Amino acid sequence: MLVDPTSEAGGTAPRPGESAPPPVPGSSAKSLVVIIVVLALAAGAWRLFASPFGHAEPARELAVKTAVLVRSGERVTVPENSPVRSHLTIAPVGIKDVRRNLVLPAVVEADPAHLIKVLPPLSGRVMLLKVQLGERVTEGQPLIVLDSPDLAQAYADYDRAKVQVALTLKSRDRQRALAKIGGAADKDLQQAETDYANAVAELRRAEARLKQIGVDADSKSVARDVTVSAPMAGSIIDREVAPGAYWNDPNQALMTIADLKTVWVTASVPETDITLVAKGQPVDVVFPAYPGEVFKGNVLFVSDVVDTDTRRTKVRIAFANPGTRLRPGMFANVTFFAPAQQVAIVPTSALVLKDDLTQVYVETAPWKFEARTVDLGFQQGDEVVLRSGVKAGERVVVKGGVLLGD
What we know:
This protein is α+β, with helices and mostly antiparallel strands. Helix content is 24%, strand content 36%. The chain is built from four helices and 25 strands. The strands form six sheets. A six-stranded antiparallel barrel has the order 5-14-17-16-15-18. Strands 1-2-22-21-20 form a five-stranded antiparallel β-sheet, with no helix packed on it. Strands 4-19-24-23 form a four-stranded antiparallel β-sheet, with no helix packed on it. A hairpin with a 2-residue loop joins strand 1 and strand 2 (75-77). Helix 3 runs antiparallel to helix 4. It starts with 26 loop residues before the first helix and ends in a 7-residue tail after the last strand. The model is unreliable at 1-27 and 48-65 (pLDDT under 50).
């Protein structure tokens, strides 16, 4: 059987009188696409393998031209085409007269020159307490009554000393009489004179002891009560004793009396601000107890000792205290008016923190900067005083310095 060759391709042979079908479109287009893809891949491969060798130097030059910063240790250079230049503001370090008023908390204290700690003359039990804490007393006013067995011993010492004086006096007189007629040796007379002198000294000591206790030496009373009186007029600012307590330490104060006609206002100045305070400096003191009232004064003295724990030193101002308006323990705020000082000053925006250091960038040449550590003084508004690190007139980066950091 004869078969049409076109039937294998799934087509049909043209019938007599019909024209042949046109060629199938797309076969030549597909070939063209394949050729283009091959050429593109070849070009990419050529660039990939050729660029490290043929174009390395131009790429390096381009990187240098577009560098943002160039560093050398603590020095930074901003290249001509760097975009950082437009973000930096440079200005000279200023200098101005700055008056810094220091405001510190303070407390009222009694003047130690007008303060007495009342000590017990003898050990014994407190039988009666006649004053209270904060009470005002007059000189000689009874404060405490002690029952002390040691009082009898003090009287006994006095009586014994009186008898000894009488005996040694007779012995001395007898030796003197014998010496006049040649019946006594010189050493016996000298011994009698010495014994009498010792006896007189012991009597004086016993009398002074009774006077210190506060009793009459010639009193015949056998009572053991000892009355402790106020040594001066003032106020009881501290009391350590209570009725019924047994007091056996003669070095421990029973209470404290202070004359509050003059008081101290004591402030603690930080170590870094000691140079702002001096003796005779004018101050204003305000007490919460008297709002709206300002007490004018002057610095009495500045302590030469710095507390090792607080790193502060004591500064005291003395005030006359009529009517006892100012009382120990009151709080206050003291304003110290320091003299004007010429200081180097920069905006706070110029400071850059690096680790635990504060730095500024100083311009050493056009668009060349050096990181320099500075010591800060104090801040006023948006400006800060520099103690060291830069000098007035040096140009520093006052804005954008953080862009120059690592």
